[in-house]
Amino acid sequence: MTVRTRFAPSPNGHLHLGHAYAAIVAHDLARGLAGSHGGEFLVRIEDIDGTRSRAELADDMLADLAWLGLSWDGPVLRQSSRLTAYAEAGERLKAMGLLYPCHCTRAEVLAASRAVGPDGPVYPGTCRRRSADPAGAAWRLDMAKASALAGPLVWEDALAGLQQAEPVPFGDVVLLRKEAPASYHLAATIDDAAQGITLVTRGADLFLSTHIHRLLQALLDMPVPRWHHHGLLTEPDGRKLAKRRGSPALMDVRGAGEDGVALAERLRAGEFPAGLRLSQRVGNST
Ligand code: GLU
C-alpha cells in the first residue's frame, strides 16, 4: 500500500523550526530521499479556528515549505472548505444519541471540574444531565456512552507500538463549537480519512489526542491509519519552541537569504541550531 502522509499546520502564527522539522518528517516518511519511498505527501491548512486563524498566513507557510525543498501532492486542502463534511458527521453522531448541547463557559467548567485529564480540567458533565437549548450551543461527546458503544479499540504508533485506546479520561470533549464549526479532534479525524492518509505524522504533544481520534474513527466507520508521533524541537531548557522566546519564523530566515534546502538537510541530520534539542518521542513521557 502506498504511504500517504500529511503536514497540517494551523495558520495562527508563522511556521518556525519545529514546524520545519515536522514537515520534513512527514515528507520524508512518504517520499524518502528523491522520492525513493514512492509515497505521497499532502498539505492541509487547519484554518477553522475563527478567532485565531489568519488566512493570509497560509501562503507564507506554503512558500516556507517550498523554500525547504519540500513539494506536496495534489491540491492543498483548507478546512474552511470542508464545513459541510464536519456538520454531516456532527448530525450523524447526534442521531446516534452521542452528543449533547452545552452552554457552559470555560470559567464554569473550571470551577465545577473535579478531575484533571490529559488535556486539562475534565468537563464535569453538567449539561449531560440537563436538556440545554440546542440553539447556539457547543456539542459535547458523551464519552462513556460512545466508548461503551465502540468497545475496546487499539491503535498503532510506528515508534511507540500498539496502544489501547483510552479516551475516557478526557471526559466529554467538545466536537462542535459555538465559535468554530468543528473542534480540532473532529475536523482532523474526518479530513485524515477523506484525504486517504495512511500514516498520520505529528508531534508527540498530540500523542494522547489519538485516543479520541481512534474512537471517532470507530463511531463514524472511518478507515484506521497508523500514526507516527515524532519528538518535538525544544529550547535548551526543554520548553517548546516559541517565537516570543526568540525562535525565528521561517519566513524571516528565508527573507534573510539563508538556503532552505541546506537548513532542511541539517535538520534531517539532527544538527539543530542554537542548542535546540529533540524531546522524547512519546507524548505521555515528554
Ligand atoms: N494543526 C495542528 C497544529 O498545527 C496539527 C494537527 C495534526 O497534525 O493532527 O498543531
Account of the protein in words:
With 286 residues, the chain is α/β, with parallel strands linked by helices. The protein folds into 2 domains: 4-82 and 192-278, Rossmann fold, CATH 3.40.50; 84-176, Rossmann fold (3-Layer(aba) Sandwich). The protein has 9 helices and 14 strands. The protein has helices at residues 17-31, 56-67, 83-95, 106-112, 143-150, 184-194, 209-219, 250-255, 260-268; strands at residues 4-7, 40-45, 77-78, 99-102, 116-117, 120-121, 138-141, 154-157, 161-164, 174-176, 199-203, 226-230, 233-234, 277-278. The strands form 6 sheets. A 3-stranded parallel β-sheet has the order 1-2-3. It has a 3-stranded antiparallel β-sheet with strand order 4-7-10. A two-stranded antiparallel sheet has the order 5-6. Helix 6 (184-194) packs across helix 7. The protein is globular. The protein starts with a strand and ends in an 8-residue tail after the last strand. The mean pLDDT is 93. Bound molecules: glutamic acid. Glutamic acid binds at residues 8-10, 46, 188, 202, 206.
Describe, in short, the structure shown:
With 286 residues, this protein is α/β, with parallel strands linked by helices. The chain has 2 domains: 4-82 and 192-278, HUPs (Rossmann fold); 84-176, Rossmann fold, CATH 3.40.50.620. The protein contains 9 helices and 14 strands.
